[in-house]
Amino acid sequence: MNKKSLFGLFLFSILLASLILSANLALAQEDSVALAKLEAGRAASQLPGATPESIAIAKLEAGRAASLADASSSSWIDNFRRLAFVDLWLGGYKSGHFEIAGTFVKVMLLLLMIILVQCALNYVKFPENTFAQVLISIIVGILATFLVSTEALLTSLTSFTALGTAIWIFLPILILTFFTIMVSASAAPFGILIQKILWLIYSVYTFISGLVIFSLAQSKAGSEIAGSLTKYIINPLYGADSVVLEGMKSNADAPTAVLLVVVSIFVFVIAVVKGDFLTHWLAKEKMDADLMKFQGDVERQSAKRRIEAEDTKSKKE
Q1: 103, 121, 274, 314: which has the highest count of C-beta atoms within 10 A?
Q2: CB atoms < 10 A from the CB of 279, how many?
Q3: Beta carbons of 244 and 159 less than 8 angstroms apart
Q4: Which three-class secondary structure state does DSSP give residue 222?
């Protein structure tokens, strides 16, 4: 990390710390003011010459101060957690704002589509204008997600339908592959160990999910053994009232289960058992790609120098 990045991180840390400190100080000040009013109201009500009207007013002020103290006693973290999207992200399908989950997922899908299209257009440099690339990316993203309903997205993400299975299989493999490429390029022993553990966790989880889906599919078909497994193992594991389990039960089919099991075995063999071979192969492929890029840059520079030399020669003639 260079000095500019460190300096920027330092400034950001100071800004974040100052915001947290100012928020806590403001809450503490409100608490102290409210408590002072509360004590003043109690003291006024206990004075010897206090009239019933003054006592009533003092109790009213004390009640207001107490309510203010109760309201301000909740920290900014609690207020932050009450936000709809934050509560949804923290609680998942158990959140009290799960009704907006479909909207949240569709917005995230739209942003993901825009970013992917923008990266592709920027890579091929078409069009060359950056604003036009961003505009095209937004249009393509909106068109790609326009007819996708929020209910379909939730069903896909909370169960192993065709789209949900593709998402659950493709995205983790893509992320773990990029992580493996970076680790193999740097040849860091600790990173190589970590990526093997991550591949192992993913393969085991996918294998168990495949078995669960297969058991649910057979339970729907009337199998007594699968029904017992669902009742005594799967329901306690996921929760009988789980939204995820309900989606899996309604969309469980044998082909999806077989696909998950096959993918998990393939990932386990390639990325875990043959992990060293995969790491070396990815490192070699990255080295070859960098070498081809370097050769392309050298050839373009050489062609540019030849053209400049011919242009200079023609001008002298």
Answers
A1: 121
A2: 21
A3: yes
A4: coil
Indicate if 267 and 317 belong to the same structural domain.
Answer: yes
List, for residues 244-269, the tens digit of each pLDDT value. 677 777 778 888 888 889 999 999 99
Q: Longest C-alpha distance within the chain, in Å?
A: 115
Q: 64 and 164: one domain? A: no
Q: CA 132, 135, 141: angle at the middle one, nearest 5? A: 140
CA separation for the pair 3, 13 (Å, rounded): 15
Two tokens, residue 282: 């990815």
- At residue 69, φ and ψ (nearest 5 deg) are -65, -40
Answer whether 65's CB lies under 8 Å from 34's CB.
Answer: yes
Name the band, by pLDDT with cuts 50, 70 and 90, for residue 15.
Answer: very low
Q: Are residues 209 and 238 in the same domain?
A: yes
Tell me the pLDDT tens digit for each residue of 191-242.
788 888 889 999 998 999 888 888 888 888 888 888 888 888 887 777 767 7
pLDDT score of 149 more than 60: yes
Q: Is the peptide bond before 127 cis (omega within 30 degrees of 0)?
A: yes
Residue 78 lies in a domain: no
Residue 128 is classified by DSSP as S
